[in-house]
Design goal:
Layout lengths: L1 H15 L1 H14 L9 E7 L4 H11 L9 E6 L10 H10 L20 H7 L3 E9 L3 H7 L8 H10 L4 E5 L6 H9 L2 E4 L13 E5 L19 H12 L6 E7 L1 H7 L3 H25 L2 E6 L3 E2 L3 E2 L9 H4 L6 H7 L7 H9 L5 H9 L5 H13 L1 E2 L5 E2 L3 E6 L8 E4 H12 L3
Parallel strand pairs: 1-7, 1-8, 2-14, 3-4, 3-7, 4-6, 5-6
Antiparallel strand pairs: 2-13, 8-13, 9-12, 10-11
Bound molecules: zinc ion.
């Protein structure tokens, strides 16, 4: 049947001339989702809380250049409308809308007026759109692309807006924010559902996908094994499979959400392993872009977290090799302690290889409950010769990486608002 259709097309092409035939071929390619020069795609990957210290530390941890390294094109300013040190909501708003707002606000001006996002513009231009994160899908960074709320904490209001905005692929945690009514509504809208990595195998047959893989945040890189959750790379590949079916192109945002949480926790093992997961997602995006040729891939953190330094304690050295052996986050180790924390030396030795001193053991045993994990993390970081200056964000510039036809737009020292503005250019959004 298909052969016959092709031969008829060939015959009419011969009759009508090569120009018509070439148009037919372009149409045919469109049908298969390959797109034409006009139909550009953008994949924006955001390693939350990642700057040049994290990039350098990761290179030593990995033992060679990262997949991102060779695509470096510039640096990005990160400040928000009201402070030199942004949070993820204001940083994301700038990257999603091209306008700065105050910390805590999700794609609204400091006065509370809605700012149109690049995802909404892409939708209005007939493109498909997707959001992927390892936090709740209603967390600040994915939220800024598909919702508008005055406070990032209002995740109950963010969830319905993501559906109302018709975001075609939503993958992440946060099932608890999606009520039965909302799931019914999603089904009526034509969404396919996924709850496990296995469920993603059939996703490419669907036009739209809602994948909620955890009630709250998804597992970290270090405790995903044994769960049914997909990796960030698996979610990214699946999202591309769904979105590339639209001949008008797509916009996809992928967040490595927990690199930031590792920074807040001063947890070098978590930071490096979640960066590894993020790098796999970058690789999936680049592999697609290299084949597709009409896809621009942009990678930029929204800000730095933790004030990480590569080198610490007045020494001219680091010990990232030691970090390769870490098998648990500080939070996981804290959860493994018994009531009087008398097993702390064993737990830390088993999961990091570090032999705690008597003083260190005494300190971990004496701190408040909510300081146990970070105290372990600080001793582990000392061994790695990785310093931390804060448990919050810092205001340093972040590296920007880009690949594909639009990459030059992102070169040099740019502002976070340029991310949205340049994506609009690349996608030719009206
Ligand atoms: Zn952030």
């Amino acid at each position: 049947m298909w052969k016959k259709a092709t031969s008829i097309t060939m015959a009419s092409a011969l009759l009508l001339g090569s120009a018509v035939y070439m148009n037919d071929q372009a149409e045919a390619n469109n049908g298969k989702g390959k797109g034409t020069k006009k139909d550009q795609n953008v994949i924006l990957l955001i390693p939350d809380g990642y700057s040049s210290s994290q990039a350098t530390a990761y290179r030593w941890f990995k033992g060679e250049e990262s997949v991102m390294d060779k695509h470096l094109v510039g640096m990005m300013k990160t400040h928000s409308a009201d402070t030199e040190v942004t949070d993820s909501a204001a940083a994301g708003t700038a990257m999603a809308t091209g306008e700065k707002t105050n910390n805590g606000m999700i794609s609204v001006t400091p006065d509370g007026e809605n700012l149109e996002t690049v995802l909404e513009k892409a939708e209005a231009n007939g493109k498909s759109t997707g959001l992927v994160a390892t936090s709740t899908i209603t967390h600040a960074t994915p939220a800024v692309f598909g919702s508008h709320v005055v406070s990032r904490n209002d995740e109950d209001s963010i969830a319905p807006q993501l559906l109302e905005n018709d975001v075609d692929v939503l993958y992440g945690g946060g099932a608890k924010y999606f009520t039965d009514d909302m799931l019914d509504q999603a089904e009526e809208m034509g969404y396919g559902f996924a709850e496990t990595a296995e469920d993603l195998k059939n996703a490419s047959k669907e036009d739209k996908m809602l994948g909620l893989f955890a009630e709250d945040a998804m597992a970290t890189s270090l405790d995903r094994e044994g769960t049914e959750q997909p990796s960030l790379a698996e979610m990214t590949s699946s999202a591309i499979d769904v979105l590339e079916e639209n001949k008008k192109g797509f916009f996809l945002m992928v967040e490595g959400s927990q690199i930031d949480w590792a920074g807040h926790a001063n947890d070098i093992g978590w930071s490096m392993n979640d960066t590894k997961d993020f790098e796999e997602a970058v690789k999936a995006a680049l592999d697609f872009a290299k084949k597709d040729k009409n896809t621009t891939v942009i990678i930029a953190g929204d800000h730095e977290t933790g004030g990480m330094s590569v080198g610490d304690q007045n020494l001219y050295d680091t010990n990232l090799e030691f970090v390769r052996g870490i098998t648990a986050t500080g939070d996981m180790m804290a959860d493994m302690l018994n009531e009087d924390r008398s097993n702390v030396a064993e737990v830390v030795k088993e999961h990091t290889g570090l032999e705690l001193t008597e003083e260190q053991i005494a300190e971990i045993q004496s701190v408040e409950e909510d300081r146990v994990a970070i105290t372990i993390n600080q001793f582990v970081s000392e061994e790695a010769l990785i310093g931390w200056t804060t448990e919050a964000h810092t205001g340093v510039d972040v590296p920007v990486y880009a690949f594909g036809p639009g990459k030059d737009e992102f070169a040099g020292l740019i502002d976070n608002t340029d991310i949205a503005k340049n994506i609009e250019e690349v996608l030719k959004l009206k």
